[in-house]
Write a structure and sequence with these properties.
This protein has 591 residues and is mainly alpha-helical. 64% of the residues lie in helices and 3% in strands. The chain contains 26 helices and 7 strands. Helix 2 runs antiparallel to helix 3, helix 18 packs across helix 23 and helix 19 runs antiparallel to helix 26. It is globular, with a radius of gyration of 24 Å. The model has no long low-confidence stretch (mean pLDDT 93).
């Protein structure tokens, strides 16, 4: 870890100089003043506004939203690198409470929009000032059938800071305080460090890390089960009030994807478990000279992998070169993240152990967080998050209300960035042994993104379905976890009791229920998209940039149409999964 001294840390002063920055307080005061004036001017009056007046109202709502999102983004980013700091946690919680209180004054706006008759809204949209926001209005009105009374909506909003948000904070701070002892390595390791050891070259370190990680999960599992059960019940109550048909339905609606499309994705991936994960891990076990692999060997480097470390500058060059080879302007955008301190890559205590690209607000810029340990997977993570970042920068012109994309299409640019980087690496490799290592690494990443995430989705589905009947015991949560893992990974992976509580550390289950299938959606989508590119589709690069720049103004059908793709066609998913199976075919031939 000596190289971490040269790793970048982001500069949040682009937002605020610190929690006590007077500009932060000024922004909150400005948002509060605007929100109260907004309510006075428009509450109960939307139906009678002209098209131009309605457009003006939406524009003002957008300004208020951007101010509040900017302040909350700062709190989220500051907390993500200081999750163990009590003062930062207090600041973040107080900020959430203030923003929620201010937001309650503007809550009426979307509720009242949804009460407008279709004809009344259509008349307003004849004016250009309102018509500009038609995609956002369409997204708002998707929730018409699930909207509650104004008083209940306001109550749910105000109580969220002591409900769901508080439980999420408890989860985050619990993991921030966890330390892991790994025999033969050291004591007091962070979550990022111990998880990194699960892909170490040394089998003894992997085994010891898995035992150390499982031991701490086991000692905290009653609390983590309580958090999981409480949040699942909270969701069940709200889903019933809002009349969502299934636990996943609200997520599908927010992702702007039909239930049947998600069902087709999950069904297609599950039907390919044996052809993908089972086949690959059997092959990997053979490379290790074993009949089966223990679960701590699942992400182990291949026996002949030199496990060469990448310096930060090497990773930066590899990703930027791959982006430039595809389209020079993509490198120009991605380069700003390095040049202007928009990246935090240095692992350290109290920092979120994962990776993300936070869009912040269009008037500022995104920020990227990752934990760089110098492994090939870290290079791919950098490529992934930069893909998100480029997407967010290009979509910024759509404004605060329409720049963000649904989760399903949000993963497109990130996974595409990974594929560009991987193809540049593997296509330039002449050594068959090294090529096999690169291919195997990519297959494992794809299995983690597609098969593993669909298995996570199945875990969530079972948990939320069963939670309707009562609280799930720690033992039952472990049983469901072991069942879905065994089904997805296959007989070549061996589990023991120490693995049964690994469900408890997956943050998406807590932060964003049913988020996980979006990874599989994005990976399969990109595989199909990249296949179109590889076949020389005319004007692909320009169409791709236009797709990213569209932000949230178009749904997946509109975004994919220029490339001749349709996610509602079952062949679409088959085409994407064939890319993964094709890599496994090549590995079998290289064996």
């Amino acid at each position: 870890m000596a190289q971490t001294a040269e790793l970048p840390q982001w500069d949040l002063s682009h937002l605020y100089s610190g929690p006590d920055d007077s500009q932060l307080e000024s922004d909150l005061e400005e948002a509060m003043k605007r929100s109260k004036s907004f309510a006075d001017n428009y509450a109960g009056k939307l139906a009678g506004l002209s098209g131009a007046q309605f457009g003006t109202a939406i524009a003002e709502y957008e300004v208020i939203s951007e101010i509040l999102h900017k302040t909350m983004s700062y709190g989220q980013l500051l907390f993500s690198v200081n999750t163990g700091d009590g003062e930062v946690g207090r600041f973040y919680q107080t900020l959430q409470e203030r923003v929620t209180e201010i937001s309650s004054d503007t809550l009426f706006f979307t509720l009242e929009i949804n009460r407008l008759e279709d004809g009344v809204l259509a008349e307003k949209l004849k004016d250009d000032a309102s018509a500009r926001y038609q995609p956002w209005l369409g997204e708002v009105r998707m929730y018409r059938d699930h909207q509650l009374s104004d008083d209940i909506e306001k109550l749910l909003l105000e109580k969220s800071v002591t409900g769901r948000s508080a439980w999420v904070r408890l989860f985050e701070e619990t993991f921030a305080d966890m330390r892991f002892d790994v025999e033969g390595v050291g004591e007091g390791l962070t979550q990022s460090e111990v998880l990194n050891l699960l892909s170490d070259k040394d089998e003894n370190k992997r085994k010891a890390a898995s035992a150390g990680f499982g031991k701490v999960l086991d000692s905290n599992v009653r609390l983590l089960a309580l958090i999981t059960n409480t949040l699942a019940k909270d969701k069940d109550i709200e889903d019933r009030w809002r009349k969502y048909e299934r636990p996943v339905s609200e997520r599908n609606l927010s992702n702007q994807v039909e239930d049947e499309v998600v069902d087709a994705l999950v069904s297609s991936v599950r039907s390919q478990y044996a052809n993908l994960a089972h086949r690959y891990y059997k092959l990997k076990a053979k490379w290790f000279g074993k009949e089966v692999l223990d679960y701590w060997d699942r992400n182990a480097p291949l026996p002949d992998d030199s496990a060469a470390k990448f310096k930060w500058d090497q990773a930066k060059s590899m990703v930027l070169d791959a982006y430039h080879a595809f389209e020079p302007s993509m490198k120009d955008v991605a380069g700003r993240f390095f040049d202007e301190d928009w990246i935090d890559a240095k692992p350290r205590e109290g920092k979120d152990s994962g990776a993300f690209s936070h869009p912040v607000v269009p008037s500022v810029h995104p920020y990227i967080l990752l934990n760089f340990h110098g492994k090939a997977r870290d290079v791919m993570t950098l490529a992934h998050e930069l893909g998100h970042g480029v997407h967010q920068v290009l979509a910024a012109d759509q404004g605060a209300l329409m720049a963000d994309t649904p989760l399903t299409t949000a993963e497109t640019a990130s996974v595409f960035g990974e594929m560009l980087t991987f193809r540049k690496m593997v296509d330039g490799e002449q050594d068959p042994a090294r090529r096999r290592i690169l291919l195997a690494g990519k297959v494992e990443d794809m299995l983690n993104t597609v098969v593993r995430q669909v298995a996570f989705h199945e875990f969530e589905r079972h948990v939320h379905d069963e939670r309707k009947k009562g609280e799930l015991s720690v033992e039952r949560l472990g049983e469901i976890w072991m069942e879905v893992q065994g089904e997805s990974l296959g007989p070549a992976i061996r589990f023991d009791d120490s693995y049964q509580n690994y469900w408890a550390y997956i943050p998406h289950f807590v932060h964003t229920p049913f988020y996980v299938y979006a990874y599989a959606f994005g990976d399969c989508l990109v595989n199909s998209l990249y296949d179109v590119f590889a076949q020389g589709h005319e004007g692909f690069q320009q169409k791709y940039l236009e797709m990213l720049a569209a932000g949230g103004t178009k749904r997946h059908k509109e975004l994919l149409a220029p490339f001749g793709l349709d996610a509602s066609d079952p062949e679409f998913w088959t085409r994407g999964l064939k890319v993964v199976s094709g890599f496994i075919d090549e590995l079998e031939m290289l064996n």
